[in-house]
């Protein structure tokens, strides 16, 4: 190669000759790998010899480059007075001060080292490609998830600038182990003070070396962050981890950990702004191989999953402690309605444009849960990779949400322990819990549409090899949590419906069992007032109607608009089925007075639901068809009986022509035989 006594110019020429010769050999190896795959042993032998030569070439080139830096006066002395302030003393930059022969010597050494690094990168890529070829080109996507972060390798030339600075700067770090903010402030100051000089001097050299996509600013900032990460990994985090997981864990250790993470997040934001300052197209090449993306200090958690778990556990405990006091305070579960709509108002389509907690009528506890969960999400956004963010969210936010879901489910289960919902407090308790569930569901749907969560969802599905079959929640990060809430909402909405129907059944038991009332004859001496006009609601039916009306009023005021729509329609459907089967199909005999009474009672029932819909009759289809059949004229009834007795094929058309769309021919025949002749003589 070359001897140490030779002048630098000759050394440089021989170094370039060696690099060019190795490049030629590398081209031959690449061609042979594709055209002569059977020459594997020969290729490996040649490659081993080249590697042996490079193992001597690389250290020597780095040693010569360090000697050039020392001759320039690098590293400079560091000013540590008031590192937090911007008015601290200016540190002279030897890169800017170098002139003439020194500048030329440094430029030659810089370019040679860049050429050597580029050669090494080509060799590594060729070996990687050959390894994939041997494995049949089977490459898991998970191996490339964090490619830019995990495989980050800065420029050797810039690493050589940072390495001697680290030796000096860590002396000051050791004094501030209890005040990490000074450590970060000093790193930021040194990075900022030398940034302009590094950019002005090194960027032209990087461009001359044809390192497309590399930024001197970002490489410099990343190298300084990497140096800081190494110190934190060695001196700071191990101590905090021992304190947090040890038996002597205390509030002070937890506070120190959270404080350090806050500083790291803030530091990364400031460094990102610093590194990207002056870039006309920031981030345009971020997805391309070779682009020098600045390394965040939060990447320390990518390499230490145990520290990530500790941090997630601390965030989870902190959020749980803050929420615990609100969970136990019933005022947090109180539904506050800013404007109570009148019961007579028909629900409009605008009511479904829900966006805020108040729109969903959710208690304040819902907002607390959302804010605490979102605070954890915001803090993990600084993590550099999707897989790391997934691990953090699943270890903190997801557990936090499910803990709250469990508490929510316990509150709703109270309705299962009783067959009555006569107590307003219990009804409001369940309604408030369900409103919370609905609000959280909507919030998580919105979160899942964020680009960060879309990326995390795709990554998580790929890592698990999961194919989502639910297109409605395709690529939804919180799909499992949403499914859980939807099931909870559906189950307990049906519990309320069931409880209402059971209460209604119990209160009108006597009304249903009194079958004689439908066959009773009206007053024969009323000449001017018909039975229909004179009929009032059955006394045994009034209590059930009053209960239903009061329950509906309370639920309309306190239940989410969507829930209430589903609820009253389900209740109407249940009542229609109950009344139709309990009265018209129960083989009771109907007199004309009984028909009028049944009509008056059903009219009163429809009145309860009239505020929610303009055509309430449409939600009682079977009962309304039965009433329509009972009030038909005698000739129409006789015709229907004739058609039914003959079993004609057009029976359905016959029923439809008389407005009977929802009851079968068997139902019609059963009801007809129970109509007393005098009830239908018109």
TrEMBL record:
Query: Which PROSITE patterns does this UniProt record tie to the protein?
Result: RINT1_TIP20
Q: Name one Pfam family in it.
A: RINT1_TIP1
Q: Coiled coil located at which positions? A: none
Q: Identify the InterPro entries for this entry.
A: EXOC6PINT-1/Sec15/Tip20_C_dom2, RINT1_Tip20
What does the entry list under GO cellular component? Dsl1/NZR complex
Q: Which domain of life is it from?
A: Eukaryota
A biological process term (GO) from this entry: retrograde vesicle-mediated transport, Golgi to endoplasmic reticulum
**Name of the protein described by the UniProt record:** RINT1-like protein MAG2L
């Amino acid at each position: 190669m070359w001897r140490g006594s030779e002048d630098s110019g000759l050394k440089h020429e021989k170094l370039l000759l060696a690099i060019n010769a190795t490049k030629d050999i590398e081209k031959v190896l690449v061609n042979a790998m594709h055209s002569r795959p059977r020459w594997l042993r020969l290729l490996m032998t040649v490659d081993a010899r080249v590697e042996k030569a490079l193992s001597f070439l690389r250290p020597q080139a780095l040693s010569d480059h360090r000697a050039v830096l020392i001759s320039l006066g690098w590293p400079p002395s560091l000013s540590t007075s008031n590192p937090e302030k911007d008015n601290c003393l200016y540190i002279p930059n030897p890169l800017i001060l170098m002139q003439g022969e020194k500048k030329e010597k440094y430029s030659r050494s810089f370019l040679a080292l860049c050429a050597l690094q580029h050669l090494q990168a080509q060799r590594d890529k060729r070996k990687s490609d050959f390894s994939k070829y041997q494995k049949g080109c089977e490459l898991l996507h998970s191996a490339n998830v964090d490619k830019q972060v995990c495989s980050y390798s800065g420029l050797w030339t810039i690493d050589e600038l940072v390495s001697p600075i680290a030796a000096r700067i860590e002396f000051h770090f050791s004094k501030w182990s209890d005040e990490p903010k000074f450590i970060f402030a000093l790193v930021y100051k040194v990075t900022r003070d030398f940034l302009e000089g590094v950019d002005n001097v090194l960027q032209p050299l990087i461009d001359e070396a044809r390192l497309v996509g590399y930024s001197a600013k970002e490489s410099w900032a990343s190298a300084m962050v990497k140096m800081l990460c190494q110190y934190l990994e060695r001196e700071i985090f191990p101590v905090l981890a021992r304190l947090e997981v040890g038996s002597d864990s205390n509030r002070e250790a937890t506070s120190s950990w959270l404080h350090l993470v806050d500083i790291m997040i803030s530091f990364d934001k400031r460094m990102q702004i610093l590194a990207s300052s002056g870039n006309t197209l920031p981030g345009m090449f971020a997805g391309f191989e070779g682009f020098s993306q600045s390394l965040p200090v939060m990447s320390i958690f990518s390499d230490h999953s145990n520290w990530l778990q500790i941090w997630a556990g601390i965030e989870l405990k902190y959020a749980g402690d803050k929420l615990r006091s609100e969970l136990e305070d019933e005022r947090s579960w109180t539904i506050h309605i800013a404007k109570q709509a009148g019961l007579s108002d028909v629900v409009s389509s605008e009511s479904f444009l829900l966006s805020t907690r108040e729109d969903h009528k959710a208690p304040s506890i819902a907002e607390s849960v959302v804010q605490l969960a979102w605070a954890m999400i915001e803090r993990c956004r600084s993590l550099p990779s999707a897989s790391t963010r997934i691990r953090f969210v699943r270890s903190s936010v997801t557990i936090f949400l499910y803990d709250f879901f469990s508490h929510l489910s316990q509150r709703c289960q109270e309705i299962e322990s009783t067959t009555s919902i006569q107590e307003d407090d219990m009804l409001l308790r369940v309604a408030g819990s369900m409103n919370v569930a609905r609000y959280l569901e909507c919030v998580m749907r919105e979160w899942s549409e964020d680009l960060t969560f879309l990326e995390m969802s795709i990554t998580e599905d790929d890592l698990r090899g999961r194919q989502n079959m639910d297109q409605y929640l395709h690529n939804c990060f919180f799909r499992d949590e949403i499914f859980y809430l939807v099931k909870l909402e559906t189950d307990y909405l049906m519990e309320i419906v069931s409880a209402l129907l059971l209460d209604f059944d119990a209160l009108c038991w006597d009304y249903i069992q009194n079958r004689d009332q439908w066959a009773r004859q009206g007053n024969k001496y009323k000449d001017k007032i018909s039975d229909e006009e004179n009929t009032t609601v059955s006394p045994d039916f009034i209590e059930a109607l009053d209960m239903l009306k009061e329950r509906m009023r309370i639920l309309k005021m306190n239940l989410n608009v969507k829930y209430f729509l589903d609820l009253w329609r389900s209740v109407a459907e249940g009542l229609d089925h109950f009344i139709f089967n309990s009265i018209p199909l129960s083989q009771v005999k109907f007199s004309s007075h009984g028909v009028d009474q049944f009509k008056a009672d059903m009219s009163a029932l429809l009145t309860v639901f009239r505020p929610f819909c303009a055509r309430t009759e449409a939600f009682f289809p079977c009962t309304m068809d039965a009433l329509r059949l009972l009030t038909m004229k005698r000739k129409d009834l006789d015709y229907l009986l004739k058609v039914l007795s003959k079993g004609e094929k057009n029976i359905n058309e016959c029923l439809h022509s008389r407005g009977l769309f929802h009851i079968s021919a068997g139902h019609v025949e059963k009801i007809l035989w129970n109509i007393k002749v005098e009830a239908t003589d018109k």
